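In this section we walk through a basic example: taking a raw amino acid sequence and producing a predicted 3D structure, encoded as discrete structure tokens. The instruction is simple. Fold the sequence below.
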Amino acid sequence: MSNLKTMSLADLEAKVLENRKLLLDLRFQKKLGNQVKTHMFRKLKREIAMIKTLLNERET
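The resulting token sequence is shown next.
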């Protein structure tokens, strides 16, 4: 979390997009029946939520 606070707005927005893409890839891999690290779903969702919270805090 501390490294997220030091990132710029553009970097944070890019990180959200990257995490969403990874989440989508994980979903596809799971549907295809491939081995997936299921803990990554929760980790990515939480990181997206943390970044969005930081972005909202910086807006106000």
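Looking at the output, two observations stand out. The CA atoms of residues 19 and 47 lie 8 Å apart. The chain has a mean pLDDT of 94. In the next section we compare this with other chains.
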